Every structure is written in C-alpha cells, then in structure tokens.
UniProtKB/TrEMBL annotation:
It comes from Alkalibacillus salilacus. It is an enzyme of class 4 (lyase). Its EC number is 4.1.3.4. The lineage of its organism: Bacteria, Bacillati, Bacillota, Bacilli, Bacillales. It comes from the Bacteria. Signal peptide: none annotated. Belongs to the HMG-CoA lyase family. PANTHER family: HYDROXYMETHYLGLUTARYL-COA LYASE. This is Hydroxymethylglutaryl-CoA lyase. PROSITE patterns: PYR_CT (PS50991).
Length: 300
C-alpha cells in the first residue's frame, strides 16, 4: 500500500471558476451569501471572483462589490483571478489576499482564452505579479490544458514544462496544474506528475481536475499517491470551460471531501455545511448541481 498524505488542503474555486460559466445570472447578495457560507465550512481558501473585463464574463461584473461585501475570516485566504494591470487595480481596491494569474499550455487555447500568444502573455502576467508583490499579495498561477486541449489534442510535456518554468520564474508562490477539459486519465496523470516532481518542488504545485468524463477522483488518487497535498474543487461540481464544448465543472468539493474523509485523510472541511451551502445555491441557479453528494442530499 502506497503511503498517502495525512492531510490535504482544498482550495474552493466555485464562486469564480464555477459561477463564471453558469448562464443564469446570480445576484450580488446571493454570491456574498454563498461565500459567507463557504467561509463557515472549514475551508482555508476561497477564490471569490475574477477581475476580468465585465464584457467577457458578465456573471462576475460585481467583483469589487462581492469582495467588499463578504464577512471575512482572519484564518481564510480570499483570492481572485486577475488578467492584467487594470484588473489588478480593482483587485487591490477590493483588498483580496491573493492574486491569481492564468494562461494555457496550448497555444491555440491561449489565443482563444486570452487573445494573445503564449509569448505575448508572459510580459503581461509579469506586470501583474510584480504589482501584486509590491502590494504584499501572494500570487498563484494557473496553467490550463496541461493534459489535453480541445483544439490541439494532447500537449507535449516539454511544452508544459516550459510554461511552468516561465511562470515560476515570474515569482509566483504556487502553480495549479489544470485538466481544463477533463480528458486526463490516471496513467497520464502519473506520467506528467512524475516529470513535474523531478523539476519542481511539489509543495508549490496544486492539482485542478475537471470531471467531464468522471475521472477527477481517480486522477486525484494518483496525485495523492505521488504525495501531492493541494487540490482545487468547486462546490457541487459548478463550472465548465467556455472554449471546450461539453466540458463539465471542476471535481466537486463535496465529493472530494467525502472521499478523502473516508480514506482517513484530514481536510478540515465540514461536509454537512458544504452540502447545505450547495442546496442553497441550487435555488438561485434553478438547476441541480451535478455532484454525487448533492444528488444524495436531494433524496434525503
């Protein structure tokens, strides 16, 4: 039996990565309530929103209002996605704790998502990192399409490593490795993470699995076997990818917490409180959340 971590950190990205892809517009008060309830569940990290231009993501146009309106807890990190210096100004105004930058390992996906080539993206992100650090903020990076791209298929691991190298050289504190369209399988995850561990300190790496094909928990287990201890999750499986038809949301935080708890791995998160929060946000979405835990809760 492989030795698994005794505890892990789950980073909740539902209020940003989840809601940004929901077609039903959620009002500001509902978002604030969602985040406040998540804050009471034992999570140590919540990604609140995104400071991209409102025309790109109308769902998150109230980013500053949401960030300023929540009841903050001192032991919790509140983060937000920031694409450029203009977004950073708003993030600083909102006083987020951590700034997240993002780009793709795939050239085509990067063009579709950011409207820039990979090489054109680096200097823009460097400005954000430098500005955030000057304000005393920690910085997290996201690298998308690590395990596959909707336009280019599988991405060469050397290309992934090159982008990771550049992001770490900017001075980021952590890098989240994304299976953006949910195409990864356990063998592929094993191979990629084996290469990652040889090159980077895995204490500065997180995993961001999507569940399009129901593989996210299996892939999480492989990462646990490799000793990784930080995972992104989205309440109830909220989310998707606007540039990948049919892609579903992140691994559901509630399903992830259930699995880890049953395996004897400490998360610090209260599953009942998570579930109740999911039931509450379902009413605003006017649709059921796709996680197994939420399906079970609706039957009870």
């Amino acid at each position: 039996m492989v030795s698994l971590p005794q505890d892990v950190t789950i980073k909740e990205v539902g209020p940003r990565d989840g809601l940004q892809n929901e077609k039903t517009l959620i009002d500001t008060e509902a978002k604030i309530s969602l985040i406040n309830q998540l804050s009471e569940s034992g999570l140590s990290y919540i990604e609140l929103t995104s400071f991209v231009h409102p025309k790109w993501i109308p769902q998150l146009k109230d980013a500053v209002e949401v960030a300023k309106g929540i009841d903050r807890k001192n032991d919790l990190t509140y983060a937000a996605l920031v694409p450029n210096l203009k977004g950073l100004e708003r993030a600083i105004e909102a006083d987020v704790d951590e700034v997240s930058i993002f780009m793709s390992a795939s050239e085509t996906h990067n063009q579709k998502n950011i409207n820039k080539s990979i090489d054109e993206t680096y200097p823009v992100l460097q400005e954000v990192v430098d500005g955030a650090k000057q304000e005393g903020k920690s910085v997290r990076g996201y690298i998308s399409t690590v395990f596959g791209c909707p336009y280019e298929g599988k991405i060469d691991v050397n290309q992934v490593m090159s982008v990771c190298d550049n992001l770490f050289s900017m001075g980021i504190d952590e890098l989240s490795i994304g299976d953006t369209i949910g195409v990864a399988n356990p063998v592929q995850v094993h191979n990629v993470l084996s290469s990652m561990k040889e090159r980077f300190d895995q204490n500065h790496l997180a995993l961001h699995f999507h569940d399009t094909r129901g593989m996210a928990l299996a892939n999480t287990y492989v990462a646990l076997e490799h000793g990784f201890r930080t995972f992104d999750g989205s309440l109830g499986g909220l989310g998707g990818c606007p540039y990948a038809k049919g892609a579903s949301g992140n691994v559901a935080t509630d399903d992830l917490v259930h699995m880890l708890t049953e395996m004897g791995i400490e998360t610090g998160v209260n599953l009942d409180k998570l579930t109740n929060t999911g039931l509450a946000i379902e009413k605003h979405l006017d649709k059921p959340l796709p996680s197994k835990q939420m399906e079970l809760a609706r039957r009870m």
